[in-house]
């Protein structure tokens, strides 16, 4: 799964830390999602989408391998 | 995130405070036949009916202490407990069960008699020990990658 988390974060001027605090996860989790090492649950994906005020599909996209 | 079956974060420290003296006591008992005098049981063993040899409960105390300490260390919540941490915990647990039984299988094939009994004594605690080591290693790994990533995005 691909994601635009890093771009969205830059657009909203949020650090990984701030984003992690907002949705109640560890910094490492945000980092792991950005680098594609961790695929978040639906709940977490929805929370992230809520922070950026965009639909989930705008932030997370399926890969050819998914 | 709601997590089931975990102790509060602060219990990890309590776990270490129980584990360290217990492991010292356990080794002292196993290899130096050290017994705490006040744990002597004047009557025969309560485990073996009819046994009249006086017992000492030092090894029992060490064993229970090790189990309690290790369980608290292993299953206390992280400071920030989220779903990825939960997944790492499960992966570490599976890994430790595999590793533990692999080692036990090797021991079954290579160790005999009383030495095997010693292996079994260790085996009672190694699942938790290996789990703790593996889990901390996984968390340490993600922290390192995170730190590197932060550095690379700063510059």
Automatic annotation (TrEMBL), chain A:
Protein name: Helix-turn-helix domain-containing protein
Keywords of the record: DNA-binding
Family annotation (Pfam families): HTH_3
Domain HTH cro/C1-type positions: 5-59
PROSITE patterns found in the cross-reference section: HTH_CROC1
Database matches in InterPro entries: Cro/C1-type_HTH (IPR001387), Lambda_DNA-bd_dom_sf (IPR010982)
Molecular-function GO term, any one: DNA binding
From TrEMBL, chain B:
Keyword annotations of the record: Membrane, Transmembrane, Transmembrane helix
Segments passing through the bilayer: 12-32, 61-77, 98-122
Domain of life of the native organism: Bacteria
Keyword Membrane on entry: yes
Protein's UniProt name: Uncharacterized protein
Organism: Spirosoma endbachense
């Amino acid at each position: 799964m691909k994601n635009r988390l890093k771009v969205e974060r830059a657009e909203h001027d949020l650090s990984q830390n701030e984003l992690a605090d907002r949705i109640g996860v560890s910094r490492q989790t945000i980092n792991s999602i950005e680098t594609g090492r961790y695929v978040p649950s639906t709940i977490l994906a929805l929370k992230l989408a809520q922070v950026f005020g965009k639909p989930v599909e705008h932030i997370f996209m399926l890969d050819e391998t998914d | 995130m709601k997590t089931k079956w975990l102790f509060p974060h602060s219990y990890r420290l309590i776990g270490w405070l129980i584990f360290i003296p217990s492991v010292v006591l356990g080794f002292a008992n196993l290899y130096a036949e050290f017994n705490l005098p006040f744990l002597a049981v004047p009557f025969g063993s309560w485990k073996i009916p009819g046994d009249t040899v006086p017992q000492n409960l030092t090894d029992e105390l060490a064993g229970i202490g090790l189990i309690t300490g290790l369980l608290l260390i292993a299953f206390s919540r992280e400071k920030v407990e989220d779903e990825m941490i939960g997944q790492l915990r499960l992966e570490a647990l599976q890994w430790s069960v595999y590793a533990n039984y692999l080692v036990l299988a090797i021991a079954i094939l290579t160790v005999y008699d009383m030495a095997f009994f010693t292996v079994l004594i260790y085996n009672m605690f190694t699942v938790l020990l290996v789990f703790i080591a593996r889990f901390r290693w996984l968390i340490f790994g993600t922290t390192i990658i995170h730190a590197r990533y932060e550095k690379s995005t700063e510059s």
